[in-house]
Amino acid sequence: MYAQYESALAALDSTPPARARTSASASASARPPSDQRSASLRRELLSTRYALAVAATHYRTLQRFQQLGPDASRAQVKSAIPAWIMPEDAVYAYGARHTDATTRPFDVLIIADAHLLDVSALGLLAQAQTVVLFGDPHLVGVRDGLLARSDVLSDAVERFHTEHLEGKVAFSASCASRCSLYDMVASALGTGAHTRLTLSTRPAELLTYANTQAYHGQIQATRAASARATSAREASARDQSACMVSYRVPDTAREENAVTALIHACMESGAYDGKTFGIVSLGDGAYTTRLRETLRAHFDPATYTDQQLLCGPAHMFQSQTRDVLILSCGQDARAVRRRSVRSSLALRELATATCSATEQLWVVHAFDPRRNLAFDDVRVPLFRMLSANLSASPSALPASIRARVTQILEPRTSASHEGQHSAGVSMEDIADSLGDMLL
C-alpha cells in the first residue's frame, strides 16, 4: 500500500501541468483545451496529490507507532505525531499558506485557555476540521473586562458584531466584546465534556480555598507526595516556612514594605534558591501602582528576570504559576468595613491567585479579618482556612526570615505584630452578626 502511494506521487510529479493529451488520429480534428479546462485539471491534480500526501503521512505515522511499540518513551511518541504548538497569529499565518480550498489547514486544533480569547479569535474555529476548546469559567477572563487588548479593538469588535453577526448568526448575542471564545461556543453548542481538574504538583493546602469555593470539589491533588510538592515541606524542617502563611501589618503603606521584606528574606535564604515569586494585588489601581514602584526600588532588573518576579492584579496570573505567591490585600480596616467584597469577580480573582501558587501562598493584610470582614465577604473562607492551619502563623516563620523582616520594617511595628495570627470568622461570629441585623 505504501509503495502504491509512492508510485502515485511520483507519477503526479512527472505529469506536465494541466496539459490535455489527444491521440495522433484525433489531433487534427480536436480543439485544444481552453485555459479554464486546463486550470480545472490542474486543481484536480493538486487536490489528488494533496490527498495522497496526507494519506502517506498518516501511513508513515502508523508505521512509526508500530515500530515504537507499547514501551515507547514520551519523547519518541511526541516525535512520531505531526503536531505543533503555536500562538494565535502563527495559526493564521499557517492557514494563509494553505492553498487547498477543499480542506482545512489542520486536522485537529486544540485551543487552550479559550476563556482568555475574545470574539476576534472566532477565525480559529475555521482553521481545522475538529476544534477542541479548553477554558475555565471559574477564573478571571474576558467577561470581566480586564483583558481587553485596547479600546480600538473593542470598538472594532462592536462594529463587526453589528454589521456582520447581529441577526445573521444564531449565537450573535454571545459575540459581545466581553464574551470569551469559550462562552460563545458553550452558548451555541453547550459546554460539552467537562474535564476534572488535576493539579497534581500542588500541596493540598493550597487548593483548599479554590476547590471548596469555586470548583465544588472538582480539583484533585493526585500526587501530593511528588518531588515538587514536597520540596517546600522538606525545606520547611530546615529553613523554609509552611505552605501557607498569614501576615498582618498595621496599614497599607507598611503592607508594601512587608511584601518587599518577605521577598528579600526568602531570596537570602538558601531554601529558596531558584524559586520564582509572584505578588497578586487585590487592591485598587493606585495601590497596585505603589506596590510595583516599591518593588522596582528594591530589586534590580536581573532579579526580576532570575526570580521571574511578577506583580499585578489577578488576571495577569492566568496560565502563570509561581513557586511562592504573595497575596497582598491592599485594604486597611476602614476600607474593609466600608466596602465588603461579595462579587463573583472577587471570587474568581481569589481562585486565580490560589491556583497560581505551586509551593507556598502568603497572605499579607492590614486588617483584622475577625473584626473587620462582613460574614458574607468572599475572603472570609480564605482567612478561616488560614486560622485553622496552625502552621500559617507568622510565629512559625524561620528565625532568619523574621529577623530580615524586622530589619526592613520599623522595629516597633515588627515587634508589635510579629507572631499575630489572623483569626478567621467562626460560626458564632456569623450568628452574632445575624442577631445584630435582626435586632
UniProtKB/TrEMBL annotation:
<dbReference type="InterPro" id="IPR027417">
    <property type="entry name" value="P-loop_NTPase"/>
</dbReference>
<feature type="region of interest" description="Disordered">
    <location>
        <begin position="13"/>
        <end position="39"/>
    </location>
</feature>
<protein>
    <submittedName>
        <fullName>Uncharacterized protein</fullName>
    </submittedName>
</protein>
<feature type="compositionally biased region" description="Low complexity">
    <location>
        <begin position="14"/>
        <end position="39"/>
    </location>
</feature>
